[in-house]
Amino acid sequence: MNTTFKLAAAAAVVLSISACASQPEPVEQVEEQAPVEVAEPAPAPAPVEAAPAAPVGPLAGSLEDFRVNVGERVYFDLNGYRLDVDDQEILKRQAAWLSSYPGVRIIVAGNCDERGTREYNLALGERRASIVKDYLVSLGVDPSRVDTISYGKERPIAAGSDEQAWALNRNGFTQIVSGANS
Amino acid sequence: MTRILTALMLALMIPIGLAMPAAAQLQVRVDEGNFQPTPLAIPDFEVRGANAEMAEDIADVVRADLESTGLFDIQNPASFIQKDLSIDVQPRFPDWRIIQTEGLVVGAYEELPDGKIAVSFRLWDVYGGEVMRINGQPGRRLTTTPDNWRRIAHKIADSIYNRLTGEDPYFDTRIVYIAETGPKTERVKRLAIMDADGANQQYLTAGTNTVLTPRFSPSAQEITYMSYEGGRPRVYLFNIETGRQELLGNFPGMTFAPRFSRDGESVLMTQAQGGNSEIYLMNLQTRQSRRLTDHPAIDTSPSMSPDGRAIVFTSDRGGSPQLYIMNTDGSPRTCPSGGRDVACRITFNKGQYSTPVWSPRGDLVAFTKQLGGRFYIGVIGTDGKGERLLTESYLDEGPDWSPNGRVIVYFRESRPGAGPQLWSVDLSGRNERRMMTQTDASDPAWSPLLQ
């Protein structure tokens, strides 16, 4: 999955370079890092033609790409708002992906399980969303690209009323608002 | 909606006949430890008009209101011996003593030439053998338009309740709540309102935006609540009469957990930004707001004391959600723990405490408590003493007080996966009962007594 991600990122760099030909320097860098040949299977210079021909995975830079190859949610402990190592890995991938697609804007939603009261959970969700945002910003994501919202316990993704469902429902959800490829 | 406002013309307290000594003994104690409901007979009203059904309906609502308090044992009409009651004639007390009725309500329903209806009633103390005066009068007569008949019934029940218990009335009120439909993962939440007895349910918003935590103004036909309109969670003011919605304040971040001050002139709310929640007080006239708390922890769910001098709120500054009280002007208080501090913690028992609501009488705070996977509604003294748990279930949350401070309304999910429903409980912990709604329902709030 990591390889796919690097290829996709490389492809994106190539794309962005060809889009602004006025700067000579970066061209050399690109050739060092990512030979055009390697990127071939992915939709490199002409993504529109390549993508339908070889539907191996999600289109690079798409919502699906983000969801499948990066990960859109981090999960919190009961009443918690700290990011563990797994969460940090996911957010690092998010930050890298976002740096590859600088036109993408996101909103981070903070969610809670149903075992708390409504207003406290709204505050806790806001705290969770802010923790995620702060971490992304610490990794170089421009804060102006990141909005936050709290849904408290209003937006469960698992309908059950058991430990497993609650663990899924305590999350920070990074949602792409605009700027993704489609 | 305008129907509610239709000129309510209640000609109050027209004395009817009889001048008798007022030394009735019948009194219902609401706080008695060894509790026995008081037997009360409310026979069908005398009918002076064509619509006997309406007369029956009015009497039914009076009975249901009084029965719902748990304080009265409404007698079965089949047991009545005297069948020829008239409002103009003293009842045959021995006939009522035989069936051990202590209070007797005798009513008359009339249709007036102008199309209105009138209901007269007297309350008799069966063992004392005399009429119980209400506001100094030996009876009451209330007049209104026929479509407003339920309010006449509630006012009669309020009079009787007030006369027998000495407590302020609360039947002629409404409940605002959130009506919930759809699956848990795609819940539709609408603002809804109904009479306190569950009649006249209406939806005030369409469900396009999730709305939460409505609260009644104590002084106007207004609600403050939180809505996700425009994708941003913020506090709004909603006028019930006009249906007009208005954003309160222009804060960055989100605003939530609104509640009116007791005088209705201000709204307390929480503003959250950058992971920190603080409590603000906004004056509705000037729209100026002032931050009351200043702490990196979560501070939310503010509720003001009746005298406006202090607020109680939820904070996790001690590590878990607990209740705190602070002076509205920010000056230090002497805390229950002995020291002086800007904010004093009042909950020290095991468990998490949230959603505090100061009682209209000022001496108690109602709250939600979580402990060991169960949720409780309880009350505690503002000095942190005398905690009492009134209810328990899988999820009991969000208490609010009846305007007289006797009854607490809240919502309950009785078991995992069960939808929320509205419930009420007497301050004594007795008389837990469900309030019927057409859909699942949460976040109930009680109106003041209607004007």
UniProtKB/TrEMBL annotation, chain A:
Keywords: Cell cycle, Cell division, Cell outer membrane, Lipoprotein, Membrane, Palmitate, Signal. InterPro entries: Bact_OuterMem_StrucFunc, OMP_bac, OmpA-like, OmpA-like_sf, Pal, Pal_lipo_C. It is found in: Cell outer membrane. Residues 64-180 form the OmpA-like domain. This is OmpA-like domain-containing protein. One of its GO terms (biological process) is cell division. Pfam families: OmpA (PF00691). It comes from Ostreococcus tauri (Marine green alga). It comes from the Eukaryota. The lineage of its organism: Eukaryota, Viridiplantae, Chlorophyta, Mamiellophyceae, Mamiellales. GO terms for cellular component: membrane. Residues 1-22 form the signal peptide.
